[in-house]
Every structure is written in C-alpha cells, then in structure tokens.
C-alpha cells in the first residue's frame, strides 16, 4: 500500500485533455501507458471547446494538452518527449545521440505524412494523384527504416514507433474514406508487418478508438471540405 | 608504459570528441537554417569543417547522398553519419556535447523551449515566407497572420531578456534569425512585420543579434538583400 501511494506521489497529478478520435492524442496516451503513469482523461468536444482547453493551450487551442500538476504542455511530440524526461523508467528515446536524432527526424517526417495522406484522402482529380504519389514516395523511405527490425525502436517500441503509430490504424481509415490504396503489403512488406506487430501490443490496442467512429468522422470531414472546395471561386 | 600510452590515446580521443573532430556541416551562406546550426556549434565550441553548397541552382552529389529525403541544407555529418533538419541537428549537438547547455535542465522548461521553437518554425516562418512571395490581398492576409504570430511569439518571452533567461538558449538560436530575414522581407516586399506593436520582440531581436558570438556568423546584409531580391522577382512573377 505504501509502495502504491509513493508511486502516486511520484507521478503527481496527470491529466490529458484530448479527443478520442485524434491520433495525436492517442500518441500521448500510449506514452503514458508505456511509462506506467496513471492519468485522468478529459475528453473535449472540439466543436465546443472548453475553458480548460482554451486556458491551457491559448496559442493553438488544440488537443492534446498534458497537464502535469497543473502545468500545461501542448504539441504531441513535445508532450511525448516531456513524458520521457519527467518519468525516467522505460525510456522511449535511446540514450545514444545519433539514434535520438534519427527518431526525432522520422517523427517530424511522420507528422508531415499525416497531412499528405489526409490531403490525398480529401482531394480529387489531379491534386489527389499528386498527393498519392508523394505519400507513396514517403512510405518507401519509411519502409527502408523498418526493414530488418521488429519495431522502429528495435526490439521494443519507443518514441519512433509512437510517432509512426497512426500508420497502423488511422492510415487504413483514410485509405477507405479516400478510396485509395497506399500501404500495400507486397510493396511495403516490412512496414506492413510492423503495423500488425505494433497494433497487437496490448497497451497500444487498448487506446485505439472505435473504427466505425473514425470512418464516420473522416467521411464527414472529407464531405465538408470537398463542399467548401467546390464553393471557392 | 603501455598503460600510459593507452591512457593518452583514450584522452586524446576524448579531447577530439569534445572538440568535435570528424564533424562536417553542409550549408549555404544565405540559409538561416544553416546559420542557426553554426550558432549552436559555436556556442558549444565545436570545431568543424564547413562545406558550402552552390545553391540555389546546384545540389552536390554529397548533399543528395547525405540527405536523400529532403535534399536540403543544413546537414551535419559526424563520423560519416548524417543528420538533417536544423532543429534535430541542434538537439543532436546538445545531446552529444554536454558543455554550455542550450536547453534548461527542468523537463517542463525544456518542453516550453521546444514548444516555442516549433511555433516559430511552423507559424511565424511560413507566414513571413508567404508575405514575401505574394502580392495584393493574399499578401495582406499573410502580413496580418505573420504579425499575429510574432505577437504570440513575443508572449513566450514572458518579460525575460532572452528566451533562455539571462543568457541565450535553444529558442533564441532557433528563432533569432527571424529578426534579420523579416527585415529583409520588409524592405523587399514593402511591408511592415516588426514595429512598436511587438516592441519587446524587437528589443530581443536587437539584443540577440548584437551578441558577438551571434553577430560574427551573420551573412553580409547587402549580399543577403541581393539574393532575396532575386528570389522575390521569381516568386512574385510566378504567382501572377
């Protein structure tokens, strides 16, 4: 019992302001779970943002926000690095500077790819073709990084895997909604295998939002954005 | 005697490591992203070999080999291992060489520093670049956004002399160059980005850019102006 309350004291008060469908928010939950940190999840309705969110992320007004003993941190990759530094056990980043640099490089690359894939998803015609082309080139680079490894982090999942994690679940939803095929198994065998390995890890799996809700959300977003695009002069 | 020799070799290796032997920086004199890596190396007192790319029209095979993903400068090559993306490079420099830390020790303060560097890169810089290459209404909108983002960046300063506190740190070297390039943009594009509305930010830019270690690395202003005038002509012709 004493051990338990010492642990809680060590952890402090941890809250995540998030939206369950957001891949950026799930990333933060994964990091906390890997560290064994207990937290309170505070779901946001992004169409009606709370005072709590606006107060704690006045700059971007976006989720996720981590609140650690009341102190707010925004931007998912910044949050994940913070989590790695505030709780020392189960390091997410390698201690080796070059490996850390590689993980950080590819994490940013991953975030760029999210936008490219979403763009491919919502675009039509020539724009869609171009975006798909870019996405495929990017996936080829990522395939190289995972070839010969079980996880991007090596034998265990880490920062690099968490950054790429959306590829194991959200990508397929965007492919479906956008009526396109990107992560084809015979083109990207190692990456495809990684998506299976990664999404099967229990604490990764337990944070994944319901797929039907994701499909619903992306379908609605795409419909809305396409209608806007149709109205522009 | 063998033991002494071994010690010397180990010490020599350590000293070489500390000084940054085997460190190359591939850059371009007109690139602010290469400039901020230079600043980081200088603050850490790392010796390195500088390799100038003949940009913007030619990219060397070496650059393409070391940065196949983006094909851009800067690239740091340490013992033949390349690192691209200037902020990733600066964090590598910070991790590898422990002297003169650029980031604070406290995790929360580190997170804030990373947040503001990201904000400058992802909000201020694209808006300024957009204001630089557009005209008319599109430019007016970009100018408004750039000014707004600079005002927000100013709030990150939170009354301190530098983002790093009494001395410069990660955010200062990540964003301080904007003080030069924004002014170049103002002059060429005939717009106003930094004025009394961001007086504190303006003071910070001035204080930062006056520091000898920072000033020594700056490219000559007239050359920078000429280079960017060329870009401006091309970009605004393309957008009409």
Helix-strand sequence of chain B: HEHEHEEHHHHHHHH
Q: Give the termini separation of chain A.
A: 66 Å
Task: Kindly name the structural category of chain B.
Answer: alpha+beta
Major beta sheet summary of chain A:
4 strands, mixed
| Amino- and carboxy-terminal Cα gap of chain B | 76 Å
Beta fraction of chain B: 5-15%
* Main beta sheet of chain B: 4 strands, mixed
Task: Tell me what you see in this structure.
The complex is a heterodimer of chains A (233) and B (240). With 233 residues, chain A is of the alpha+beta class. Chain A has helices at residues 2-11, 23-35, 51-56, 76-86, 97-122, 125-146, 159-164, 170-177, 189-200, 202-205, 211-231, and strands at 14-18, 40-43, 65-68, 71-74. Chain A has a four-stranded mixed beta sheet with strand order 2-1-3-4. Mean pLDDT of chain A is 94; it is low at 1-6. With 240 residues, chain B is an alpha+beta fold. Chain B has eleven helices and four strands. Chain B has a four-stranded mixed beta sheet with strand order 2-1-3-4, with helices on one face. In chain B, helix 2 links the parallel strand 1 and strand 2. In chain B, helix 5 (107-133) packs parallel to helix 8 (178-189) and helix 8 crosses helix 11 (221-239). The longest helix of chain B is centred in the middle third of the chain and has 27 residues, at 107-133. The A-B interface holds A 59, 68, 71, 73-75, 78-79, 81-82, 85-86, 97-98, 100-102, 104-105, 108-109, 141 and B 68-69, 78, 81, 83-85, 88-89, 91-92, 95-96, 107-108, 110-112, 114-115, 118-119, 152, 155.
Descriptive keywords:
heterodimer; A: 233 residues; alpha+beta; 4 strands; disordered N terminus; B: 240 residues; 4-stranded mixed sheet; globular; Glutathione_S-Trfase_N (chain A); glutathione transferase activity (chain A); transferase (chain A)
Task: Offer a quick outline of the entry.
The complex is a heterodimer of chains A (233) and B (240). Chain A is an alpha+beta fold and 233 residues long.
